[in-house]
Amino acid sequence: MKKLYKLFTSFESIFSAVFIIGGLGLIIYGVFMRYILGDGQSWVDEVSKYVIIWGAFMGFSVALRDGYHIRIEFLYDRLSKRGRRYLDMFGSVVGCIFSTALLFYGWQLVSFQITSQQRSIDSGLPMWLVFSIIPVTGLFLTIRYLLFMFKTVKGEAGESGTELELKRVLEESQKKEVKTS
Question: What pTM value is reported for the model?
């Protein structure tokens, strides 16, 4: 199970990074072609937007995993451990409902795009391919919220973003100390 979790975590991180970096690479290519060689490629602008959006959407799941989603820490930090647990569970249930709806309605949108056979204007990409990130993001967020709910039930959740960031910094500094020793 831990290997599956590591694979899932690695996939979402690598996918997000590759798509964002790939999108930036396409933008640089487009600028080079337009301003240096004088041969603007209209498809580059369109595809780079899609690729960056794909990377950002997958980044939602990475942000949720790492505790970077918005929460009012001023209030959260003042709650008791039990209060944090209830609030975490409530937020996870609401998030799970939202991400499941994103999965469901995103799938409906993709199905419609497949049947209508719409294509993008400049690149000719099938629009179902462009919109398929919506149900994929819904699936990944649903998995993340379910995992967070499981952690909350086990009593492992309930840390504010500041506490999580402090833990990350301490872990990184300990790893550096071990490497230098």
Answer: 0.80
Which token pair is 62? Answer: 């990475």
The full DSSP string for 27-63 is HHHHHIIIIISS---HHHHHHHHHHHHHHHHHHHHHH
pLDDT at 64: 86
- For residue range 122-149, list pLDDT tens digits in order: 888 999 999 999 999 999 999 999 988 8
What is d(CA 166, CA 176) in angstroms, rounded to the nearest whole number?
16
Report the distance separating Cα 81 and Cα 126, nearest Å: 49
- C-alpha span between 134 and 105 (Å, rounded): 9
| CA–CA separation, 103 and 89 (whole Å) | 21
> Measured in Å, how far apart are the chain's first and last C-alpha atoms?
32
106/156 Cα distance (integer angstroms): 32
How many alpha carbons fall within 13 Å on the CB side of residue 87? 16
Give 118's DSSP letter. -
Structure tokens at 64: 């949720």
User: Which residues in the chain come in under a pLDDT of 70?
Assistant: 71-72, 156-170, 178, 180-181
Question: Long-range contacts for 72-77 (Cβ within 8 Å, ≥24 apart)?
Answer: 73/160, 73/161, 73/162, 76/160, 77/160, 77/162
